[in-house]
């Protein structure tokens, strides 16, 4: 059944939900004072459920694997709206520097439990897969089915795709939980990222701040890796995600911190770790450091659920909101379209 729906929040999650509902015939309005100002603009862009696997996070893992399966079709349907290739690389290579790092990598491999999708790699094979990588690698692994995407092209493509499906945009801030009642439609969906806490405090969504660095390849530099490189460097993690013209290096992590200022010490450590495994990045040009807030729940699993009356939530995607966008769009649309229509007055 077609419905009239208001989506609160125009990040990657809100726009995917809006686009999915509009493609299924609903009349959709996105309310956001600054679409694309949140975590979706900052993210590294890894679509990487296997690399993210960890004991105790089985539900998140299953959801991530399901969403990865939807990503090819999602990217194919969005590509006509994008200014460049959305998918920037295929495959992830993990590098572990010391024995503790190698043990952590084994923990990931055990959590996945399927060498077809996450397999050990000989250091010599890792060196071939990542030209220019430093030679001192204790262990390596590969996740060949993972991809990475350009998060900013993705957000712009989603906006254009929504507009093409007739989604309306209202540049307004929804001023708290009580204001949700004043929004029109058969359904209102809260997709406000880390700010969802102000609109639906019961969800327990908290901000986990993260910083990423963007570097551009200079004219005399080695090209960016053709795979995502994730490294464990003496107990710390760093990732290097290819872009058309450079890389994104991430990410720092601070619990319950809403301050979007950049802390230089942790960012320098992040770059030190990236240079330890990919020394040629030292020659790249610095472009920017950006900070964002991962909208995180207690169990690291997003909330895609009715909140009562005609209000729903699709939020709390933590460190995996881009990965989980397609499955969230599908589930949120099913949830809203199957709900009995409740008259709005
Ligand atoms: C450093 C970093 C690296 C990351 N890397 C990855 C990665 O590699 N892969 C991955 O899958 N995920 C990654 N993530 C996580 C991912 O970015 C998030 O999970 C995802 O962007 C969340 O999308 P969202 O649309 O829910 O929230 P956001 O993108 O934060 O958007 C929320 C939107 O809601 C709007 N809003 C807020 N309050 C209101 C209100 N009251 N009224 C109206 N509008 C409102 C905001 O203006 C904003 O536009 C990363 C995150 C960070 C911070």
Count the DSSP helices: 9
What compounds sit in this structure?
flavin-adenine dinucleotide
* Biggest sheet character: 10 strands, mixed
* Uncertain residue ranges: 341-345
Please state the second-level CATH architecture: 3-Layer(bba) Sandwich
Helical content band: 25-40%
Give the overall average pLDDT.
96
Order of helices and strands: EHEHEHEHEHEHEEHEEEEEHEEEH
Number of domains: 1
The secondary-structure class comes to alpha/beta
Work out the oligomeric state of the chains in this entry.
single chain
Stated plainly, the CATH topology is called FAD/NAD(P)-binding domain
Question: What is the strand tally?
Answer: 16
Shape: globular
CATH class: Alpha Beta
Radius of gyration: 20 Å
Would you mind describing this structure in some detail?
The protein is α/β, with parallel strands linked by helices and 345 residues long. It has one domain (4-338): FAD/NAD(P)-binding domain, CATH 3.50.50. 30% of the residues lie in helices and 28% in strands. It has 9 helices and 16 strands. Strands 3, 4, 5, 6, 9, 10, 11, 12, 13 and 14 form a 10-stranded mixed β-sheet that branches. Strand 15 and strand 16 (311-315) form a beta hairpin. Helix 1 packs parallel to helix 6 (151-164), helix 1 crosses helix 9 (325-338) and helix 3 packs across helix 9. Flavin-adenine dinucleotide binds at residues 8-14, 31-40, 42-46, 173-174, 191-195, 199, 210, 212, 250-251, 292, 294-295, 315, 317-323. Flavin-adenine dinucleotide binds next to helix 1, helix 2, strand 9 and strand 14.
């Amino acid at each position: 059944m077609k419905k009239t729906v208001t989506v609160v929040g125009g990040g990657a999650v809100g726009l995917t939900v809006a686009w999915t509902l509009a493609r299924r015939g609903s009349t959709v309005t996105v309310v956001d004072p600054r679409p694309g100002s949140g975590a979706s603009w900052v993210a590294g862009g890894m679509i990487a459920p296997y690399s993210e696997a960890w004991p105790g996070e089985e539900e998140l893992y299953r959801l991530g694997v399901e969403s990865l399966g939807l990503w090819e079709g999602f990217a194919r349907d969005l590509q006509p709206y994008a200014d460049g290739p959305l998918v920037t690389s295929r495959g992830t290579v993990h590098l572990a520097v010391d024995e503790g790092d190698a043990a952590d990598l084994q923990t990931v491999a055990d959590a996945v439990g399927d060498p077809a999708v996450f397999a050990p790699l000989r250091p010599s094979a890792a060196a071939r897969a990542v030209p220019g990588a430093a030679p001192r690698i204790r262990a390596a692994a590969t996740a060949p089915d993972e991809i990475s995407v350009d998060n900013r092209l993705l957000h712009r493509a989603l906006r254009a795709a929504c507009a093409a499906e007739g989604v309306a945009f209202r540049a307004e801030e929804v001023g708290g939980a009580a204001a949700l009642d004043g929004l029109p439609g058969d359904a209102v969906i809260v997709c406000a990222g880390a700010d969802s806490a102000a609109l639906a405090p019961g969800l327990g969504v908290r901000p986990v701040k993260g910083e990423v660095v963007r570097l551009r390849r200079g004219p005399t530099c080695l090209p960016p890796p053709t795979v995502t490189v994730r490294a464990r460097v003496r107990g710390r993690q760093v990732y290097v995600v290819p872009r058309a013209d450079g890389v994104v290096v991430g990410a720092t992590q601070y619990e319950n911190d809403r301050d979007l200022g950049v802390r230089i010490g942790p960012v320098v450590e992040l770059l030190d770790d990236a240079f330890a495994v990919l020394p040629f990045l030292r020659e790249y040009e610095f472009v920017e450091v950006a900070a964002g807030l991962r909208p995180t729940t207690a169990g690291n699993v997003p909330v895609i659920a009715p909140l009562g009356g005609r209000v729903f939530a699709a939020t709390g995607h933590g460190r995996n909101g881009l990965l989980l966008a397609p499955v969230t769009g599908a589930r949120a649309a099913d949830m809203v379209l199957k709900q009995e229509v409740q008259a709005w007055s």
